[in-house]
Design a protein that fits this description.
By secondary structure, the chain is α+β, with helices and mostly antiparallel strands. It is globular, with a radius of gyration of 19 Å. It folds into two domains: 2-92, SH3 type barrels, CATH 2.30.30.230; 101-306, Fumarylacetoacetate hydrolase, domain 2, CATH 3.90.850. It has helices at 28-36, 43-50, 55-60, 63-78, 109-114, 187-192, 198-201, 247-257, and strands at 2-8, 16-20, 24-27, 84-85, 89-92, 101-105, 124-127, 133-134, 139-142, 149-150, 153-159, 175-182, 185-186, 207-215, 225-230, 233-239, 265-267, 289-294, 298-306. Helix 1 (28-36) packs across helix 4 (63-78). Helices cover 21% and strands 31% of the residues. Strands 1, 2, 3, 4, 5, 6, 7, 8, 11, 12, 14 and 17 form a twelve-stranded mixed β-sheet that branches. A five-stranded mixed β-sheet has the order 9-19-18-15-16, with no helix packed on it. It binds magnesium ion.
Length: 307
């Protein structure tokens, strides 16, 4: 299941949870109301409780809500329940206020090489915050404080269950699904002006995320290719399995000292091909269109806009 958040283009529309049907979107709450119609209890209240507008709230309902969502999707397909055309909606970031948004650095050999750094002996990581989160088709602000704006396509994990000191062998049981993060980076702030990477990573609008969360049962990391295009020029192109430390290792490692909560985002690092790695480096300009893709998840489209 590809779960997402959206709003219809109606000016009074509220955010909703939906499921991607390729050409169209199934509104989970509306479908659930029809699904529960005639059953004991109030179909409207039940649908509202199971499918709140907030993804973190939905995830916190656990396997029960997820199972209902999957059953409702199957029922909707079978019964030809009305869907909404994609051109009539705006996709929203799937999660907007995670408790934690952790990004792993230097997790692909060739990206470490192009950055003239070594893969560290233990994972290096930094944070982003809700102020950075934007959706597909939102613009990435070119803040006047940076002249070295860069992109990084990454596979990101959405935590589905609270994780505390979980061994690597069990870590994937705690994953809800996967999404794409474009780890936008102001290289001058990150690397030249400050010893903390976060200074160039956590600016407003520097975490495009989405367009959907693919549940783990439908995501095959062995088939996932990460690609990033700038104005249709392919810049990054690498298998997710080339990552140096696996998803399971990283989640287990983080959970030893930091409890991971439902809805936390862990982005797993970027492969080679970032603007910093070119000789001379090639940074983003006003108007550049980035397309970050991961096989099985979709495309995240964002245009750079000078502010
Ligand atoms: Mg990164």
């Amino acid at each position: 299941m590809k779960i997402l958040r959206f709003k219809t283009k109606d000016i009074t529309a509220e955010p909703r949870l939906g499921v991607d049907f390729d050409e169209s979107i199934l509104d989970l709450r509306i479908a659930a109301e029809a699904f529960f119609e005639g059953e004991a209890g109030n179909a409207y209240e039940l649908a509202k409780t199971l499918f709140p507008a907030d993804m973190k709230k939905f995830l916190s309902l656990g396997d029960m809500a997820d199972s209902y969502a999957k059953a409702i999707v199957a029922w909707a397909v079978e019964n030809d329940i009305a869907t909404i055309k994609k051109e009539d909606i705006k996709l929203l970031a799937p999660i907007t206020k995670p408790d934690k948004f952790i990004c792993i650095g230097l997790n692909y050999n060739m990206h470490a090489d192009e950055s003239k750094m070594e893969i560290p002996a233990v994972p290096v990581y930094f944070s982003k915050y809700p102020n950075s989160i934007i959706a597909t088709e939102d613009s990435v602000p070119l803040h006047p404080e940076t002249k070295k704006l860069d992109y990084e396509v990454e596979l990101a994990v959405i935590i589905g269950k609270k994780m505390q000191r979980v061994p690597e062998s069990e870590a994937l049981n705690y994953v809800y699904g996967y999404t794409i993060v474009n780890d936008i980076s102001a290289r001058d702030l990150q690397l030249e002006q400050n010893t903390q990477w976060v200074s160039g990573k956590a600016l407003d609008g520097y975490a495009p995320i989405g367009p959907v969360i693919v549940t783990k049962d439908e995501f095959n990391i062995n088939q996932a290719q990460l690609k990033l295009y700038v104005n249709d020029e392919l810049r990054q192109d690498e298998k997710a399995t080339s990552m140096f430390r696996s998803v399971a290792y990283l989640l287990s490692y983080l959970s030893q000292t930091m409890t991971l909560e439902v809805g936390d985002i862990v982005s797993t690092g970027t492969p080679a091909g970032v603007g910093l790695g070119f000789d001379p480096p090639v940074y983003l300009n006003d108007g550049d269109l980035m397309r970050a893709e991961v096989t099985g998840i979709g495309s995240l489209l964002n245009t750079v806009k000078a502010i």
